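Quick one, tokens below. Sequence please?
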């Protein structure tokens, strides 16, 4: 009995018609990272579960509800990576990168996995493009500004022009503690109006309440007085330098006091970028500073900052005209009779070895039908091999854009194809 399988819920195949768009985004990202001097890091798809529990926080949704643990290895405790920051910090510490460079500017592109309830723009396997700046020299407020500017530059280079950048600061660890005391105090008499999750969050991690989407919790949150009164002078001055630097660069942002982010590791600057086309409140990109994570994970006491954007959400937000076309094929080879098929195949290989992209139908059907296939392939030129070509020891080359054709010799073929393709704008 045959059985048809489906892709797991919350995952998606990226089919050939879409991969060029993904490649386009990845190419632009790599170019931008080169411009900003970030180099690529690749880490495993799974890590020890404890790494995520310690860094993202036991009470974060990502650890509490969404961590996908590997069942076969439960006792060893491995989980699929839900994000890139913790694995990169683990790699940074393990490979003593702090001894090799004062500032490590790292970027990554790859899949992340979370056991989410799937909906539009929210998948179980999704892809992030992210950057992390870690090291003894990574504590300068200009680096906060650089990371945010780079994030904005990336989104613009992908073709997104309409988005909002929300910015806030949580301050130092002591300021965060102060902030949570202020929140608890204000919520003290309102706990009964919160959802069940938030009632637990009140004692376990009060910041999480600010992210709750539940209507009754939102009403309570709207009644809170949230400001920067918890900040020390040091944190205030740090944040002022970040905003000044952003102003200088012409990056527009909105300060949102209630932006706290859902992961535990953040201190000081936090930010989120959202576009309006996603419909929900979901962010396109997010990040912030995490000055204690490296130390918490057994490394030196060095500061760090980073961000990650979701490729699927970027694609959902792109205007239609950005459905970029794949690079066209340069030549389609047509054999008019079975006896010329071998020669056609050989010529195709010679052309490919000479750097030309090409294909053929591998079936000798009528010229008309093969021409149709050449058209469908999007090839800019076609070459035809038949009795006449064999007799004259020439090859017919057709310009698929204008329909003209001429006979050329084998040793001129690559040049002629390249010239026609260049004319067609390739
Ligand atoms: P995050 O806010 O959890 O942060 O995720 C960053 C981005 O990943 C989101 O803004 C969104 O675009 C995308 N994303 C997250 N979950 C999903 C999902 N289920 N489906 C589709 N897209 C999703 C982090 O991951 C942090 N590591 C960011 C960071 C880097 N902070 C410092 N450095």
């Amino acid at each position: 009995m045959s059985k048809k399988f489906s892709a797991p819920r919350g995952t998606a195949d990226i089919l050939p018609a879409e991969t060029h768009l993904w490649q386009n985004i990845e190419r632009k990202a790599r170019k931008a990272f080169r411009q900003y001097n970030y180099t690529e890091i690749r880490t495993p798809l799974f890590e020890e579960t404890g790494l995520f529990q310690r860094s993202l926080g036991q009470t974060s949704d990502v650890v509490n509800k969404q961590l996908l643990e590997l069942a076969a290895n439960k006792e060893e405790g491995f989980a699929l990576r839900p994000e890139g920051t913790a694995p990169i910090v683990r790699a940074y510490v393990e490979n003593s990168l702090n001894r090799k460079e004062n500032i490590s500017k790292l970027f990554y592109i790859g899949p992340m996995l979370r056991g989410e309830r799937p909906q539009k723009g929210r998948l179980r396997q999704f892809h992030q493009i992210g950057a992390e700046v870690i090291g003894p020299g990574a504590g300068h407020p200009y680096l906060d500004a650089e990371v945010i500017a780079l994030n904005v530059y990336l989104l613009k280079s992908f073709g997104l022009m309409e988005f909002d950048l929300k910015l806030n600061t949580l301050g130092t660890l002591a300021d965060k503690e102060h902030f949570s005391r202020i929140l608890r105090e204000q919520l003290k008499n309102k706990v009964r109006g919160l959802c069940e999750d938030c009632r637990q969050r009140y004692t376990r991690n009060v910041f999480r309440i600010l992210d709750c989407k539940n209507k009754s919790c939102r009403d309570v949150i709207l009644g809170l007085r949230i400001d920067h009164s918890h900040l020390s002078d040091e944190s205030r001055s740090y944040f002022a330098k970040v905003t000044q630097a952003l102003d200088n660069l012409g990056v527009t942002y909105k300060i949102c006091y209630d932006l706290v982010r859902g992961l535990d590791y953040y201190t000081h600057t936090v930010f989120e970028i959202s576009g309006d086309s996603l419909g929900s409140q979901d962010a396109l990109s997010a990040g912030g500073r995490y000055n204690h994570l490296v130390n918490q994970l057994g490394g030196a006491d060095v500061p760090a900052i980073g961000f990650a954007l979701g490729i699927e959400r970027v694609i959902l937000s792109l205007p239609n005209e950005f459905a970029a076309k794949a690079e066209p094929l340069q030549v389609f080879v047509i054999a008019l009779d079975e006896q010329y098929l071998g020669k056609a195949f050989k010529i195709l290989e010679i052309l490919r070895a000479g750097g030309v992209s090409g294909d053929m139908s591998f079936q000798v059907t009528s010229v008309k039908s093969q021409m149709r296939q050449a058209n469908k392939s999007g090839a800019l030129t076609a070459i035809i091999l038949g009795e006449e070509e064999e007799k004259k020891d020439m090859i017919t080359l057709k310009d698929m854009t204008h329909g003209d054709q001429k006979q050329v010799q084998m040793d001129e073929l690559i040049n002629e194809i390249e010239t026609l393709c260049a004319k067609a704008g390739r």
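Residues 331-419 form a domain with the Rossmann fold fold (CATH 3.40.50.800). The first helix runs from residue 16 to 35.
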